[in-house]
Amino acid sequence: MLDLKRQYEPLHQELLAAIEQVLKTQQFTLGPAVAAFERSGAAQLGVAHGVGCSSGTDALWLALAAAEIGPGKAVVTTPFSFFASVSAILRVGARAILADIDPVTFNLDAGAVERVLDSAAGAQVKAVLPVHLFGQCCFLPFGRARGLTLIEDAAQAWGAEWKGVKAGALGDIAAFSFYATKNLSAAGEAGLVTTNSDALAERVRMLRSHGMRRRYYHDELGWNARMDGFQGAVLSVKLKYIDGWNQARRAAAARYHELFVNAGLAESGPYPLHGVVLPLEIEGAHHIWHQFVIRTSKRDALREFLADRKIGSEVYYPVPLHLQGALKQLGYNEGDFPEAERAAREVLALPMFAELRADEQETVVTAIAEFLS
Fold first, then answer.
1. Pair type for strands 191-195 and 49-53
2. How remote is the C-alpha of 105 from its chain's centroid?
3. Domain 243-372, CATH
4. Which sequence spans correspond to the domains of the chain?
């Protein structure tokens, strides 16, 4: 699925030098390496502020807490995402209300969100949390028009754009993850909160350091969610290369499309019959292909077939959030979100990373053709 060593080898000396500089300064928590990444990352995304933190999950919590989303308030988000998209909402004491997804992009369906906002529960909603799933932006312009805070879950979308505006700059505040599998990855756990609001940025900085604006003076109940210096150093090195890596991913996605079409395996969507439905880049979007996710009605059998041939694949995500055991309190049942539930049965992520070779992609598609025949 992912070969991190191929990315590391060309950067070996540069990364070691950056890490050594942190050792020399002994600035292990925040410090100049983190501050440098915060500035460079914000500039690359076109936002006023980037605030480094300890993980993408903490970035979501910090964004929600900084926006003063808490008890008595509700947030609309998707049932088809990683667990943190909902758990962060619950962690701040707010109510998570779900809306179904679009079957083509797997992102929140705008019509489904508007139906939630127009329902009886809509009066409680103070924010919308779209997830830019698999590297394609989910933009919901009506959110601000309704006076809602727009909080982007951009964990999978560094460099993605919507009509020329980068993920992280589309809403009021956004959260990024630098987990090892992400397009831009740290050497461990790290995250970033981005915003154009001076007030929100100041609150995030305070909350990530135990609610302190001055050392040992605690204004609010914050958390220890600071980025360490090593991660800031690693990310500053990798930031210089991310645009090129994203272009390589786009080229790999284009090759996958060509290979599937030439093999006669691609079906018009959104639902598969006998072949596979390919992921699409919709008009207005600049997809950075964090994952290349096909749909097939024979997903589990295909995955086993590929594994037997030592071809990696992954299911993102096998259980929609409303059916997770830890989230029963949300009050949803099977059948409430049919698009998310169908996607959970059909999606399969194929190998996708910047260094993926054309011959490896040919091997993947040839194996899928063999399975389907």
1. antiparallel
2. 14
3. 3.90.1150.10
4. 4-240, 243-372
Q: Percentage of the chain surpassing pLDDT 90?
A: 96
Give CATH for domain 4-240: 3.40.640.10
How distant, in Å, are the alpha carbons of 83, 227, 344 from that of 77? 11, 26, 17
Strand partners, 49: 195
Q: How many other CB atoms sit within 10 Å of the CB of residue 199?
A: 9
Pairwise CA distance, residues 82 & 104, whole Å? 18
- CA separation for the pair 296, 271 (Å, rounded): 8
- Cα(161)–Cα(154) distance, rounded to whole angstroms? 11
The H-assigned helical ranges of the chain are: 4-25, 31-45, 56-66, 84-91, 110-118, 142-145, 198-207, 229-239, 242-262, 299-308, 338-346, 358-372
Q: First and final CA of the chain: distance in angstroms?
A: 24
Pairing assessment for the beta strands 285-286 and 161-162 based on DSSP bridges: antiparallel
Question: Strand 149-153 relative to strand 173-177: parallel, antiparallel, unpaired?
Answer: parallel
Q: Residue 172 is encoded by which pair of tokens? A: 């009021």
Q: How far is residue 235's CA from residue 252's CA, in Å, rounded to a whole number?
A: 23
Q: What is the pTM of this model?
A: 0.96
Number of neighbouring beta carbons within 10 Å of residue 256: 23
| Chain segment 12-50, per-residue pLDDT in tens | 999 999 999 999 999 999 999 999 999 999 999 999 999
317/252 Cα distance (integer angstroms): 22
